Amino acid sequence: MELQKFEKPEYYVNREVSWMLFNERVLSEARDKHIPLFERLKFLSITASNLDEFFMVRVASLKDQVHAKYEKTDIAGMTPKEQLSAINKKAHSFVGVQYTTYNRSLLPALKKAGIQVVEEHESLTSAQGDFVDRYFQENVYPVLTPMAMDSSRPFPLVRNKTLNIGALIAKNDGAKEKKDLEFATVQVPSVLPRLVEIPAADEEKKAVIFLEEIIERNISKLFLGNHVVCAHPYRIMRNADLTIGEDEAEDLLVEIQKQLKKRQWGEVIRLEVEEKMNKHLLKILKKEFQIKDEDIFFINGPLDLTVLMKMYALDGFEKEKIPPYQPAAVPAFVEEPDLFARIRQGDVFMHHPYMSFDPVVNFVRQAAKDPDVLAIKQTLYRVSGHSPIVAALALAAENGKQVSVLVELKARFDEENNIVWAKKLEKAGCHVIYGLVGLKTHSKITLVVRREDTGIRRYVHLGTGNYNDSTAKIYTDCGLFTCDARIGEDATAVFNMLSGYSEPKSWNKLVVAPIWMKNRFLKLIENEAAHAMQGRRAFIRAKMNALCDPEIMAALYYAASCGVKIDLLVRGICCLKTGIPGVSENIHVRSIVGNFLEHSRIFHFCGNGADEVFLGSADWMPRNLNRRVEIVFPIEDERIKAEVLHILDLEFADNVKAHVLNGEGVYEKVDKRGKALVNSQMIFCEEAQKGAALPKASEHTRVFLPAEPTEEE
User: Fold this and answer.
1) Helix or strand (DSSP H, E) at 530
2) What are the pLDDT digits (tens) for 479-520?
């Protein structure tokens, strides 16, 4: 393919700017009055969580590049300094819209729903004030640790992401000059509830106040004998992007544990302060944190809107929430609970969270107890806090099975959790692998080796999402059970590659990154271009979380210019532009932001009528294709292929939760005037319930969009 002419910077969007556009789509859900009030609170909370991580990782990385005087431009022709400038402008505007949404839309709606949010402690009634003061004395005061700064005490360490209250203290001798004022700070304790319910004037309603307001009201009790001139909340964001020299690290686990501690004192990259903060107090913070004006965010409301997740948990407001959803049983296992027996009958497809994740957990549990199972091998990227899969793997090892588990220690923000699991598995007798040097293992694969009458048989589970029973209830993902001998051979080769660094010469069915996958995708795209130029039917449909690989995008432009119809469903980052004359007029991009988080990766190539369909763990991003161990697998069973294509059909028809990217680079909600409403996620829920007898209530899912998976996903 001649791709050079499709590499012009004006053909692309900067990936960080594209990410900001994604968070704007999430924010649009918080602003949508057709959505139940408490779900809107949750969406607004998610935008705050997303923005925090974006700054800690992506903005931090750009700042590192600027400090290093790195001036190479990205695919859109922007230097790191230019990217920071663009991001900063967008971020300030974005935060303004967040708080406008909170103050002008959500607070009045909460009041109407029967919840009074006391924004300032000065507005408390006498009875409420008495309650708050008692609560402070009995519950809060014993936990607080006020820290002052003077000639004998340096500026204290302020931990990353913590909420703090800064104060200016004057001695009772009446000192009012700035030079006579001392700085003090106290951390709002995260071990206490930040949202405190207080007596309401109307017994049928609720009243709540934020913990920082309670502390502000009583802060003079922390500095007896002194006068508190002012007190204001503030919050910092530090560089949390780990830099691990794997080649030099003798023990990767120990090195990561060391690096995790550094997150608490990395460079401060963002400072959030109360809008009305005292100027002298702000000057002290600015100096001590060595932060520039453009990195200070003045907040008109409570700092750290992730607290709204706590408000969601308030009892008695079910009518303001979307009802719980109970995943349906996987039809294939309703009549045949013996997983191995059913898989031998044919491949089994699962669509989560519409279908239960239980069979995936039971697959490992059954293998752990089955006397004929010889070995279990699995990759773990992110697991839940009390993972039943990890417990089953430990049991398998105790039962004498050969258990090999790859635990990816470098899964961002899950490092500590994964270290705990790795140690637990090792203690149980599992062989724990920490992955390949320089690569993250992001593939989702489980291999069970079983001795049967006909000989050794390999059972394999492949998926698009993590082996995490918690997120499996709220992320949309696909999974496949198979005992196809060719896939079984490939699965064995994958684990041998991970544990022994052996590199197979070829694969039967699996498409594996980093060595083989990108070329396979480029070839599939090129084939469609060739079909189009020969007058044959040609199209590409693909669903993923992000699209920013330069070669893949240039290949898509080339194919589109040859006449290939390309439909892309990209939840997050998309650096490709639509509507460029002669380049991308045949490319259409949409994004679904719904009650569940769209997470599956599905690739559909016309293949001259053959319908080549693949599922997998990889997005079309440089890191997935070049720096990770990823697996994409073909769907060849015609019945299952029809199910997967139905998923794409319905999602490309969605006109309720879909945003479409126009030629100006703006995402717009689909115009549904005069059309039947199609909410793909709700339809999948209905179809799953109709397609299977309901299991006993073993898991319940609240329908909501969870925090955006970290950039690792």
Assistant:
1) helix 517-533
2) 999 999 999 999 999 999 888 767 788 899 999 999 999 999
Amino acid at 154: P
Residues 388 and 296 in one domain: no
From 121, 351, 442, 659, the catalytic residue: 442
709 in any annotated domain: no
Do residues 103 and 189 both lie within one domain?
no
Determine phi and psi for 186, rounding to 5 degrees: -140, 135
Least Cα distance to 451 among 402, 512, 394 occurs for 402
- Pairing of the two strands 455-463 and 195-198: unpaired
- CB 546, CB 620: distance < 8 Å: yes
Q: What is the separation of C-alpha 710 from the centre of its chain, rounded to a whole number of angstroms? A: 4
**Residues 442, 342 share a domain:** yes
pLDDT in tens, 420-446: 777 888 888 899 887 677 788 889 999
Domain harbouring 155, CATH code: 3.30.1840.10
The helix (H) or strand (E) run that includes residue 260 is helix 252-262
* AA letter at 322: I
Taking CA atoms, 52 is separated from 28, 288, 418, 459, in Å, by 18, 21, 22, 41
Backbone angles phi, psi at 161, to 5 degrees: 70, 0
Q: How many residues in the chain?
A: 713
Tell which residue, 472, 471, 409, 467, has the closest CA to residue 441: 409
Question: Among 46-60, 208-222, 404-418, whose mean pLDDT is lowest?
Answer: 404-418
Which amino acid is it at 34?
Answer: H
Domain CATH code at residue 590: 3.30.870.10
- Catalytic site residue 700? no
pLDDT in tens, 74-125: 999 999 999 999 999 999 999 999 999 999 999 999 999 999 999 888 888 8
pLDDT at residue 258, as a whole number: 58
How confident is residue 524, by pLDDT bands cut at 50, 70 and 90?
Answer: very high
Residue 712 token pair: 């690792």
Residue 702 has pLDDT above 50, yes or no: no
Which DSSP symbol is given to 429? Answer: T
**What is the value of pTM for the model shown?**
0.91
List, in order, residues 6 or more apart from 678 with CB less than 8 Å away: 650, 653, 654, 655, 656
| AA letter at 77 | G
Region class of 168: left (phi > 0), else alpha (psi between -120 and 50), else beta: beta
Mean pLDDT of 338-345: 96
Token duo for residue 280:
């002298």
Strands, E assignment, 505-619:
511-513, 539-544, 565-570, 587-592, 597-598, 601-605, 612-616
User: How many domains does the structure of the chain reveal?
Assistant: 4
Task: Residue 212: give the domain boundaries.
Answer: 120-300
Q: Are strands 597-598 and 475-482 parallel, antiparallel or unpaired?
A: parallel
